[in-house]
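User: Can you predict the 3D structure for this chain?
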Amino acid sequence: DPDDPPVAHQRGARRVGAGSTGAAAAALAIAAVGAAAAAATVEIVSFSTDLGKWMSGLASNFEQIQGQFDSVFGGMAERGSAFVDGVTKEINRSKTEVTKVMADFGLVFASMEFPEVAAENFSEAITAVTFNLAALSNQEPDAVANRLEKALRGGAGAARQLGIDMSTAKVQAELYAAGINKTVKEADEQELAFARLNVIIKETAFTQGEAASQIETFEGMMIAMSATAENLGTELGTELNNAVLEVIKSFGGRETVKEIMKVVFDTAKEISIAVVKMAGEVVTWVKQWIQQMGGAAVNHRKVIYAIEKLRPVYYLLAVTTDLVADTLDGV
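Assistant: Here is the predicted structure, written as structure tokens:
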């Protein structure tokens, strides 16, 4: 076949002639493809390691926040989690972010000794206010939540930064409306926090639904993309962390697991080096073949043929991955 590489007895007959420029260009093109494949292999290994660390970190962070959430809301934690899930879907925010905002407010109400039911209800209400205000004012939810927390504790200045009138008269009116016949000076911390919460809810009523209404905007779509990636990363990271934890339990401690993981990573490194070396050998073979062709025309079929010789690199990766999986399944 004229499109196949020259056999051994033909190679000596080839001389570099007028077509050598085209052959050299093709050689460079093939070399570039091979180098890119080799570099991609290294990048894949590096990316996979970084991705695993990122997912594990997301999961660990969420686990810590969820632990705080469960501790604060106690018997109401399940209901609170259902609220978080609803908000996450409605406004396309990350579950970690919404959970943290609500948990932090829960801590505020718990510190004021509100019952779990009240703390959870109040936290739901002010969490919704937080994200609506953040969307309206183009601020980060954390910053808005921080000012609202100060407002709950009597920070009129923080409230004013959010456009909320937390005057003594407003708070007094809410105390009376709740049936608390005390002046602002006479009311205790819990009663005042309840009155201030009602002021916040009434003063921000016009923002209701603002966060959901912005999900179709460019900024909203960017937030949604980031949240989707974080939610998926957290979910996968949780599975990864649970698997590692099971390994630790099975083998009796971190030091043993560290030894096992070192072997795993060393093996992965060796496989990567072997793949890169193989890619290099393929590229060298293709270059030699084109150079031996001398002045012969290098048509696209010959280039395609050469590039396809790189396929074993990818086959090796696939087979190695399957082999490792089968080996682990058999342990």
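The chain has 14 helices and no strands. The CA atoms of residues 248 and 255 lie 9 Å apart.
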